């Protein structure tokens, strides 16, 4: 895919041409996709039907035994070639991602996301998964092996539409599974384009994709052929997935977002942590599952931290993603703009103090919500209690650390959290009291391909990344004797 136009053409069904991506019947329906920053038309996305889903599942089932029969080394080498193909198409992929998702090319955004896809595939290929000898005492000998689960369904979200898909597709393929992916209807072209590039290096049928307009997710989950479904999205949809997969006892990994707290202890240097706090909260313009969504700051440093954060935040340019200067973009969709707008307006009405932003141009074409900091907010305000998933951070003042920890733990979700302190040991004492799958110290939200990642409480279950991630797309088999 030498440029943006060829990449787009590869995923756009045109009259008389079969839909090359799913290699199912020609897509009869299409829908227009619009740039969330400018409202401009980007292109046409196919609208696959449940018949297309049936065909994609059949192809994945048929391709799986031969893919699993390849050696681990062969599959690992293939993943490296897929990573090469992504790197070769990196700039067109980043441009499409920027236009459709809205995220800027620069900063920790579109180019970063595409490169992360290649890096993640390589790390997945290089993760060792040795056979475990679980008992060898002279009388009993038992080994634990991990075998493919079969066909894996991947339902991915619109915030990091390429990287999150790779997090799930990469390990699934490594372990000898085939995959049927379903990108979000908000970022269909990005999902299709990534998979088109990957399919340059993968055997037929190993990685299929279907893209609908609101009815395929439930149909996919109900199919008995899937050994595993991996879903990233809202808790409400996660619950529906549990219900519709129950009949087949399908294994699930559910990454259902969060409402991550950051706790700033009194001993910090506000200027030194301000940029880390900013990106912890505002990466991808706040549309990140493990972004910091509530910040608790001790009264003794509250005003200084607010001011340092305001200074950093005010300097970060927001605008159209293709403009190389910008590092923050629009919200991907109007639904999310409205969520952020409602929560900030409620906070204002409740007496909270807006330090920055908070006045969107609702009549503008793009879904731009300005970078917003809300101070002196009630800890039980909806902007604190609900997931805003956008660029509006509530900053809560505390005096008693035990109370701050209790407030951090009182929400129903528990994906990530962070503690900020000059004293690492003190921070670790606080960290272990937080109910979250990951607690970062003096940073927030960084992920690593070798470090397990997953939520607790209503943030879902199942671990991704590293050896735990490989095991989660496998079924264990004990050889005893
Ligand atoms: P959802 O979490 O509701 O997920 C939508 C996806 O789930 C679509 O692909 C949809 O497919 C599929 N789906 C819907 N119903 C079912 C079902 N019964 N069975 C299987 N799949 C189903 O995301 P939204 O985009 O609507 O976002 C809602 C909220 O989720 C956001 O406001 C945000 O707070 C949160 N979110 C969290 C993310 C995270 O990273 N954890 C990412 C994105 C959003 P189909 O349309 O074909 O049914």
From TrEMBL:
<feature type="domain" description="Aldehyde dehydrogenase">
    <location>
        <begin position="30"/>
        <end position="473"/>
    </location>
</feature>
<dbReference type="InterPro" id="IPR044086">
    <property type="entry name" value="LUC3-like"/>
</dbReference>
<protein>
    <submittedName>
        <fullName>Aldehyde dehydrogenase family protein</fullName>
    </submittedName>
</protein>
<dbReference type="Pfam" id="PF00171">
    <property type="entry name" value="Aldedh"/>
</dbReference>
<dbReference type="InterPro" id="IPR016160">
    <property type="entry name" value="Ald_DH_CS_CYS"/>
</dbReference>
<dbReference type="InterPro" id="IPR016163">
    <property type="entry name" value="Ald_DH_C"/>
</dbReference>
<comment type="similarity">
    <text>Belongs to the aldehyde dehydrogenase family.</text>
</comment>
<dbReference type="InterPro" id="IPR015590">
    <property type="entry name" value="Aldehyde_DH_dom"/>
</dbReference>
<dbReference type="InterPro" id="IPR016162">
    <property type="entry name" value="Ald_DH_N"/>
</dbReference>
<dbReference type="GO" id="GO:0016620">
    <property type="term" value="F:oxidoreductase activity, acting on the aldehyde or oxo group of donors, NAD or NADP as acceptor"/>
</dbReference>
<keyword id="KW-0560">Oxidoreductase</keyword>
<feature type="active site">
    <location>
        <position position="255"/>
    </location>
</feature>
<dbReference type="InterPro" id="IPR029510">
    <property type="entry name" value="Ald_DH_CS_GLU"/>
</dbReference>
<dbReference type="InterPro" id="IPR016161">
    <property type="entry name" value="Ald_DH/histidinol_DH"/>
</dbReference>
């Amino acid at each position: 895919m030498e440029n943006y136009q060829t990449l787009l053409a590869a995923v756009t069904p045109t009259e008389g041409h079969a839909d090359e991506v799913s290699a199912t019947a020609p897509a009869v329906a299409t829908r227009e996709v619009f740039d969330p920053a400018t409202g401009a038309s980007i292109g046409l996305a196919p609208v696959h039907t449940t018949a297309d889903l049936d065909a994609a599942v059949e192809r994945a089932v048929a391709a799986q035994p031969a893919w699993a029969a390849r050696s681990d080394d062969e599959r690992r080498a293939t993943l490296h070639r897929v990573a090469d193909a992504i790197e070769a198409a990196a700039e067109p992929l980043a441009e499409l991602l920027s236009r459709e998702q809205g995220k800027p090319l620069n900063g920790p955004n579109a180019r970063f996301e595409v490169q992360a896809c290649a890096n993640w595939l390589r790390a997945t290929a290089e993760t060792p998964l040795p056979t475990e000898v679980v008992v060898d005492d002279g009388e009993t000998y038992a080994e634990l092996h991990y075998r493919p689960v079969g066909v894996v369904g991947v339902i991915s979200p619109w915030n990091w539409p390429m990287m999150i898909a790779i997090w799930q597709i990469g390990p699934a393929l490594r372990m000898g599974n085939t995959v049927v992916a379903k990108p979000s209807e908000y970022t269909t072209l990005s999902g299709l384009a990534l998979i088109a590039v990957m399919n340059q290096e993968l055997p037929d049928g190993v990685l299929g994709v279907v893209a609908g307009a609101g009815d395929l997710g439930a149909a996919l989950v109900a199919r008995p052929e899937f050994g595993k479904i991996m879903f990233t999205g809202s808790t409400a949809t996660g619950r529906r997935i549990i219900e519709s997969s129950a009949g087949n006892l399908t294994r699930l990994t559910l990454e259902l977002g969060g409402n991550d707290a950051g706790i700033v202890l009194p001993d910090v240097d506000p200027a030194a942590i301000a940029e880390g706090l900013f990106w912890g909260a505002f990466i991808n313009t706040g549309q990140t599952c493990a972004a910091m969504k509530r910040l608790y700051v001790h009264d003794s440093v509250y005003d200084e931290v607010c001011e340092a954060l305001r200074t950093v935040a005010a300097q970060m340019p927001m605008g159209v993603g293709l403009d190389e200067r910008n590092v923050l973009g629009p919200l991907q969709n109007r639904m999310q703009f409205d969520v952020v707008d409602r929560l900030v307006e409620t906070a204002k009405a409740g007496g909270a103090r807006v330090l920055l932003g908070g006045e969107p141009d609702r009549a503008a074409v793009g879904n731009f919500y300005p970078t917003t900091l809300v101070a002196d907010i009630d800890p039980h305000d909806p902007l604190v209690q609900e997931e805003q998933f956008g660029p509006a951070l509530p900053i809560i003042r505390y005096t008693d650390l035990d109370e701050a920890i209790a407030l951090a733990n009182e929400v129903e979700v528990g994906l990530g959290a962070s503690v900020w302190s000059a004293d690492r040991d003190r921070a670790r004492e606080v960290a272990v009291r937080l109910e979250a799958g990951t607690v970062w110290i003096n940073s927030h939200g960084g992920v690593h391909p070798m470090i397990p990642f997953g939520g607790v409480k209503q943030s879902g279950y199942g671990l991704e990344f590293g050896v735990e991630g490989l095991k989660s797309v496998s079924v264990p088999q004990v050889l005893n004797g």
